[in-house]
Write a structure and sequence with these properties.
With 472 residues, this protein is of the alpha+beta class. It has 13 helices and 19 strands. Among the domains are: 159 residues, D-Amino Acid Oxidase, Chain A, domain 2 (2-Layer Sandwich); 34 residues. Bound molecules: flavin-adenine dinucleotide.
Length: 472
């Protein structure tokens, strides 16, 4: 039977980990796989997707024996490194509708609102303290080119009778965010921010308490496929009749998936704690803010008064194979620091104490896809969250659980299931060379547009070749 070869993520040095992971001293809490083990369902990857999938399977079939194999520790991937912006899928209503149709898109958008409610309930009943603050998600413009980026999604949302967004004046944005850089936009109520690593570690604890076996420090090297699959790590072998690949951008190791998946990195910085200064400028709560650059800026203030400021960097990986520079960039967030100072000039003197990066699993439609591998009906996967996963991976978990359990329901029949209808990307090296050129053009376009300058015709033409509008 054919063997699937996976890649081992480059493990980040402790000092290269995200502020979030360092803040709570996150690390492995379970032992590596050793010797031979058996499960009904094996899950590769202990981020939000893998953990939610395990929990959803247990909701539907509590007797299922589930084992998660995680290369480093749960939350060490994107789930413990992200910007902590919690918003529903209504912002991507148009993109989901393009893939799944309007009715299905509306159902998924509503499901993502329910996910936010679920996070709120998990925090309220003391199950997971994740610093969830639902003070709104601001989707703004800080230049002419960005104005109205939200128009289509907001219009579709309103037409569906959903009151998710409210338009904002420049004064309202400034009074809530402490910055006049963005001067137009909308706010999604019942959205906001979390501490991403607290959520990841909380989900790990929840999964363990419900009987999921988790082995950290257990990178899966390969999977011998067949009716029973054998997942091999350095020191052990797990056999299972069903497998879920929840390994995010690392799924680019599998050629069948790489045809649809491209990996870019996103960089984040965190300043020193400056609560008094943030109070002074009027930035007081847990709202999340993003602008509408193509390499989206996203930022929040933590409860203790740090500014966490992220931006898509435009870095791409040949064959989707990325290493330690996607843990922490050699530039140490230089672009983000420049943008931070543009948006918050009064923070120029404030130290930037952390910088880190993370890989984003992108598909051209900007909407995730779920399926099983073509030749392997018992090996399932979910990928393509495109930088928006906190309120979306709980839905991914539902879809994967229904697929794995062979259920016929609204999740296994969901419009996000099925890779055949998705766009195939060009092969390497054309893809890498093309992406480098396009991303260079996007960067120049961005830099010009931020200053309301018109970029050259060549730059405009090349930037239109990007497979999708914007990225974290
Ligand atoms: C910098 C950054 C900023 C972001 N900002 C936001 C945001 O503000 N809001 C939002 O909603 N979303 C955001 N996202 C996206 C969000 O974090 C992801 O969509 C989500 O975390 C995906 O979860 P996951 O479980 O699929 O992936 P991951 O958390 O990456 O989990 C995959 C896991 O698989 C493991 N793995 C890989 N290969 C193997 C192997 N061979 N064997 C075993 N394990 C393996 C990895 O170690 C990793 O832990 C951001 C992402 C990044 C990187």
């Amino acid at each position: 039977m054919p063997t699937l070869r996976l890649r081992q993520p480059a493990v980040a040095a402790k000092t290269d980990r995200s502020f979030w992971l360092q803040d709570i001293g996150a690390g492995a809490a379970t032992s590596p796989l050793a010797g031979a083990a058996e499960a009904d369902v094996a899950i590769v990857g202990g981020g939000y997707t893998g953990l939610w999938t395990a929990l959803r399977i247990l909701d539907l079939a509590p007797e299922t024996r589930i084992t998660i194999l995680e290369a480093d520790f749960c939350g060490s991937g994107a789930s413990g490194r992200n910007g902590g912006q919690v918003h529903s899928w209504f912002a991507g209503f148009d993109q989901i509708a393009a893939v799944a149709g309007r009715e299905e898109a509306l159902r998924l958008c509503r499901a993502s609102v329910a996910s936010i409610r679920e996070l709120e309930a998990l925090q309220a009943d003391g199950t997971i303290d994740m610093d969830l603050r639902l003070n709104g998600w601001f989707w703004t413009a800080s230049s002419i080119a960005q104005e109205g980026s939200w128009a289509q999604a907001v219009r579709m949302t309103e037409e569906a009778g959903e009151a998710r967004f409210e338009h904002l004046t420049a004064a309202e944005i400034e009074s809530r965010t402490g910055s006049s850089a963005s001067y137009a936009g909308v706010v999604e109520r019942d959205a906001g921010t979390i501490h991403p690593a607290k959520l990841a570690i909380g989900l790990r604890a929840l999964a363990l308490s419900r009987g999921v076996a988790i082995h950290e420090k257990s990178p899966v090297l390969d999977i011998e496929t067949g009716e029973t699959c054998r997942l091999r790590t350095g020191n052990g072998t797990l056999t299972a009749r069903r497998v879920v690949l929840a390994a995010n951008a690392w799924l680019s190791a599998i050629p069948e998936l790489r045809r649809h998946l491209y990996v870019v990195d996103s960089q984040v910085i965190a300043t020193a704690e400056v609560p008094e200064e943030l109070e002074r400028i009027g930035w007081r709560d847990g709202a999340s803010i993003c602008d509408s650059q193509r390499q989206v800026l996203y930022y929040q203030r933590t409860p203790r008064g740090r500014v966490v400021f992220g931006r898509g960097s435009g870095g791409v990986a040949y064959l989707g194979d990325f290493g330690a520079s996607f843990n922490r960039s050699p530039s140490h967030g230089r672009d983000n620091i420049r943008e931070l100072h543009r948006v918050y000039p009064s923070l120029r003197g404030v130290a930037v104490e952390y910088d880190w990066s993370g890989p984003i699993d992108c598909v051209p439609e900007h909407v995730p896809v779920f399926d099983h591998l073509r030749e392997h009906p018992n090996v399932f996967y979910g990928m393509g969250f495109n930088g928006t996963g906190i309120a979306q991976t709980p839905i991914g978990g539902r879809i994967l659980a229904s697929l794995v359990l062979g259920r016929r329901d609204e999740w296994s029949a969901c419009g996000l299931v099925g890779i055949e209808k998705r766009t195939k990307l060009p092969p390497e090296p054309i893809r890498y060379i093309g992406s480098r050129l396009v991303r260079g053009a996007i960067r120049r376009m961005n830099d010009a547009e931020i200053q309301n300058r018109q970029p050259g015709a060549l730059v405009r033409w090349a930037s239109r070749m990007a497979p999708g509008a914007s990225e974290h």
